[in-house]
Design goal:
about 300 residues, alpha/beta, four-stranded antiparallel sheet
Length: about 300
């Protein structure tokens, strides 16, 4: 029988599936539901130094192949999030704290607090496409990706995973910058910058006009990004974007991902999607002679 245990740097996982940021990541109860549904670890909602309301409604619209959102990073602030992280950790859950800030100092402060709350790793949101002065506006610059990553690495002992934006010409340049900053791994990708228009009203549907596109429609982009990154860096990659099935996850792993995150599929199918995806990965591995997850990683690129 195939083994589903996975390793991302120093992070040891019972299986290769992780709850992505922004879905069921606001409270301890939500994150525990994802773990109960089969996720090996959970990523929190992206948390800032201070609480934020985000953009006004409408902030979400469903499309034929996914979702558009312009939430605008609503969150309670890091000081009010301690009990949520601790509520998962005390139940032996693996928490990856997602953080965002305007500069390297802010990221480092947030990462230290996540570490003190018991987070096993920290994910740097350098890729949100719909928050002014944050996310992708910082993370589109290789120099800033390197500087932020380096500052956080100096501040904490837990693994540091920058989450990269696909809304650039060459995402591998950002990955290389993160590697120079001593990142323990890469998360790829975040949502694609997109929009929808309501023809009857002749206006954008979302209050912010632009939003982030997620769901099955972005999977080919995510797989391509992981493949490109894996060809140029030597640190692990966590693939994310449109994963709904075990076959989707296997594509990401064969492109070079050591583990995967699932987001929109949780919204569509509930937390049980993690167990479903894991069962399908295991079925594929047993049917095709793969003994362990690491055998899948990079299989479509000659093992790189």
């Amino acid at each position: 029988m195939a083994s589903l245990s996975a390793t991302v740097g120093k992070l040891r996982l019972a299986n290769p599936t992780i709850l992505a940021a922004g879905v069921l990541g606001m409270t301890a109860e939500q994150m525990l539901e994802a773990l109960k549904g089969g996720a090996a670890a959970v990523v929190t909602k992206s948390i800032g130094l201070k609480g934020a309301d985000g953009h006004p409604n409408p902030t979400m619209v469903e499309t034929v192949t996914g979702y558009l959102n312009c939430m605008g990073l609503p969150n309670p602030g890091i000081d009010n999030f301690k009990s949520e992280v601790e509520g998962v950790v005390k139940r032996d859950g693996i928490v990856i704290g997602s953080v965002y800030a305007k500069d390297a100092k802010g990221f480092a402060t947030l990462a230290r607090k996540m570490e003190s709350y018991g987070a096993s790793a920290v994910e740097l949101n350098l890729s949100c496409p719909h928050a002014a002065g944050l996310g992708a506006e910082i993370g589109s610059s290789p120099a800033r990706v390197e500087n932020v990553t380096r500052a956080v690495k100096k501040a904490v002992d837990i693994p540091v995973f920058p989450k990269l934006t696909p809304n650039v010409q060459r995402i591998a340049e950002l990955a290389l910058a993160a590697e120079r900053g001593r990142a323990d791994g890469i998360v790829a990708i975040n949502t694609l910058k997109a929009m929808a228009i309501l023809p009857e009203a002749a206006m954008p549907v979302l209050s912010n006009a632009y939003g982030g596109y997620s769901g099955p429609g972005i999977k080919p982009v995510g797989v391509r990004c992981v493949y490109e990154i894996a060809g140029e860096v030597d640190i692990p990659i966590i693939g994310v974007g449109g994963i709904c099935s075990g076959r989707d996850a296997v594509e990401y792993m064969m492109a070079g991902a050591a583990a995967v995150q699932i987001g929109s599929a949780v919204a569509a199918h509930g937390p049980g999607v993690f167990a479903k995806v894991c069962a399908e990965i295991e079925g594929f591995m047993n049917a095709n002679g793969y003994k362990k997850i690491s055998d899948l990683v990079g299989a479509a690129r000659g093992g790189k």
